[in-house]
Amino acid sequence: MMRFLLLFSRQGKLRLQKWFTPIPEREKKKIIREMTTMVLARQPRSCNFLHWKDLKIIYKRYASLYFCLAIENHENELLALEVIHRYVELLDKYFGNVCELDIIFNFEKAYFILDEFLLGGEIQETSKQIVNRCIESSDMLQEYYCEGETDFPGTWRKL
Amino acid sequence: CVLHLPLQEMIRAIRSARTQCEERGVIQRECAAIRAQFRQADNGGRSHNLAKLLYVHMLGYPAHFGQMECVRMIASPRYSEKRVGYLGAMMLLDEKQDASLLITNSIKNDLSHSNQYVQSLALCTLACMGSAEMCRDLAPEIDRLLRASNSYIKKKAALCAVHIVRKVHDLGELFAPAARSLLAEKNHGVLHGAVVLITELCERNPETLERFRKTVPDLVQIMKGLVISGYSPEHDVAGISDPFLQVRILRLLRILGRNNEAASDAMNDLLAQVATNTDSTKTVGNAVLYETVLTVLDIKSESGLRVLAVNILGRFLLNNDRNIRYIAMTSLQRIVGTDHNAVQRHRGTIVDCLKDQDASVKRRALELSLALVSATNIRSMMKELLLFLSSCPLELRAQAASGIFNAAERYAPSQRWHIDTILHVLTTAGGDVRDETVPNLIQLITNTSELHCYTVHKLYRALLSDISQQSLVQVACWCIGEYGDLLLRGECQETEPVQVTEDDVLDALETVLQSHMSAPATRGFALTATMKLSTRITDNVDRIRSIVSIYGSCIDVELQQRAVEYNALFKKYDHMRAAVLERMPVIEKNSPGHTNGESTREAVKEVQPAKVKQAETLLPQQPASQVCDLLDLLGGSEEPLQPNPAVGSTLPVLPVSTSSTAGGDLLDLLGGLEPTPLTPAPTVTVYEKGGVTLTLSSEKQSDSGLTVTLTACNSTDSDISSFTLQAAVPKSVQLHMKAPSGDSLPARGAAKVTQMVALSNPNKVNLKMRIRISYTSQGSAFQDTVQVDSFPEH
């Protein structure tokens, strides 16, 4: 399974953190510090895989953001790179040419998208289109409420 | 939507803060406002408030006061509030906090909500942070959702089930039937979840694994469908149809096929098909190929398939993408034991990877190369490894050096090659080798007696060019000290002859002694080597004497101590010098004193244990307690004296010392010398009769210890032979007689005999000693006794 996913800028500022196992707050902060230090120290054309404790750390840089995914030792590193790439594609489709600012100002959306793609440390949905459709529907549900309705429509049950 | 602005305004305000202090100020203000809003009645902006708090939390500021608000929001009937509430719960709460218990009811209710997106929130939160209790509570509900709901909910329920099984292992049995039937679904999301769930169940329970082996044909079918099917827009990634699902199925097949012939047979063709047909031009295809290879190598696959798998790894090694090269090597590393020959075929490529730019790839290449060294390829491999060592990154040098040493030890084609290889490593990476390297190399050199001349010449030359690598310098000094005579002789079979003078050698050692680059241990080696040369050279002994005496006042205590002892070896104990400094015998492997101790002590440790061994064979141990109370000096009765243990022995026998400090050994030998300027101890004549004179001098060692030196001289015209001394002391005093320097006293005082006696007087009784003198002169035996009542103290 995947253990955690971190997004941080080149200056080491955290933009998103998803933890797939329960970890105390202090421990999370420590891990974040270690990950940012390790990953930011890597040479430009290095291998995207690192070893850290009993985990494999897969990292990739997209523009100004580093995506850092920790997986258990028996997991497939090359597939983990594809997982990161898929998430970036989902963000890109949703925000349209996504950039770091989108994720900063709409961080809740980034989490909602992630929660449709991954679940409990595993891949939840392998189709890009289905994930996108679900997010759109959820957004509409939210919007729909904002206009004053207090009840849920019975529709959108079937995809 | 207008209501979004407050959140984004706050974010803007925080980002425009120019200092950490300013940022803290903005955040404090905002948090106060958020707190106030939490306390107010429902005002429609609750979700934005909580979102603001979550942003602040992500920056690293405390947000625990928002926990209860999350609980309240989750219970709200509004989707927007539930959504942020659940997100907040996942970010701020974990199963260890009490507040998380409060959301259990909401989750339970929302699991059966009429709207699937609300159900989805509950499922997501449960799979993210469900405690064991919550899992037990909600497991039946999850099982229900696995069987009767739409695909959207089923796929989430499957992963919830996975989480539940990880938290509460026994519940695995509950989900097995539902998992089985999910394999018939067409929806990829559900299939993927089902495969993950089945994998989890099989990994946890061997019986479950047995039952699920029956699904191998189904899994093979699904895989075939993915591999052969035409383009499917929903799941296509660079020409591969749903690589995520393919990889999970391959992994499940691996678990089911492991150690099982039938299952492995059933998947053989499929694996061959995937291995051959998968497009390897993009990473995604290689991800599938990689998983396929791992599966083939782990199950009971037929040999042809195995070769195919290893060849794929071999191709990976040539890939431009260094990620692919890296995983190829980690995989090859895993099978180098079991499929050694197959991996050997790719040795050339692996060795080329030693030159890769990437440090991770280099590391893997090193490990794999070392694993591939064999008796047949040792020479060529060693060339590559030594080349690697000279340019490898610092963090790999220690590993490379020790790997090279191990390989050399196992497969060295000749001893000279072995020594050359070690010397090469020491020259290139001497600073990174382990401490045992120096004694190990010394032992190797000692045992290769036919190469002593060659080795010392080579090391001498190395020393001349570079004295910065401590390990090398230490070994070189040791060899020069030990085999200096061979060095000076000039000719050597294996290398070109070179004229080396005594001064040259001493210059070299002095350079080491004086250099600021030399570690204290190294200087110790150099000093000892210099001293050893005093018995191996002929002309320059005085130079050695002066070096040794200079270092007698060195600031470094270790060097000072050695120098003082060596000085004493020149002065008082010159008769012992040759024996003490003679050639080392062959060191046995794993002899005591080899593997223990700090490296700084190792030089002198080398000298002592072997010498002690030598001594042991000649002399039985003399227990200190064997002081006879026969001669009760205070009572005065006559009884046989304590025998001198060293009668008849002509070698200077060393006391068997159990002291583990090098200094201690040497101290014992020379009778407890203090590192102070030497002034002759006052002597007193205790016996003078028949031309034989016995003088006594003593030196206080400690509060209760005294060393007595007896010196005998023969002023008659005839030689005296079989000269022995025996001594007795009061009951409570301990006595230890050291070996005499000899047993003959030539006529007219041509030479003296000295003998040392160590006394220990812990009870501080009045110290007396009775000495019996025996000798043969002109064919007749003589014997006499003298009592010493007082000792001149130094």
Could you characterize what this model shows?
The complex is a heterodimer of chains A (159) and B (794). Chain A has helices at residues 25-40, 77-95, 100-105, 107-117, 128-146; strands at residues 2-9, 14-19, 49-52, 55-62, 65-72, 118-119, 122-123. Chain A is α+β, with helices and mostly antiparallel strands and 159 residues long. In chain A, the strands form two sheets. Chain A has a five-stranded antiparallel β-sheet with strand order 2-1-5-4-3, sandwiched between helices. In chain A, strand 6 and strand 7 (122-123) form a beta hairpin. The model of chain A is unreliable at 146-151 and 153-159 (pLDDT under 50). Chain B is α+β, with helices and mostly antiparallel strands and 794 residues long. A five-stranded antiparallel β-sheet of chain B has the order 3-4-5-8-7, with no helix packed on it. In chain B, strands 6-9-10 form a three-stranded antiparallel β-sheet, with no helix packed on it. In chain B, helix 12 (188-204) crosses helix 13 (206-212) and helix 23 (378-391) runs parallel beside helix 25. The termini of chain B are far apart. Classes of the chains: A alpha+beta (159), B alpha+beta (794). At the A-B interface, strand 2, helix 2, helix 4, strand 7 and helix 5 of A face helix 1, helix 3, helix 5, helix 8 and helix 10 of B. Chain A: It is found in: Cytoplasmic vesicle membrane; Golgi apparatus; Membrane, Clathrin-coated pit. Chain A: Belongs to the adaptor complexes small subunit family. Chain A: Residues 1-139 form the AP complex mu/sigma subunit domain.
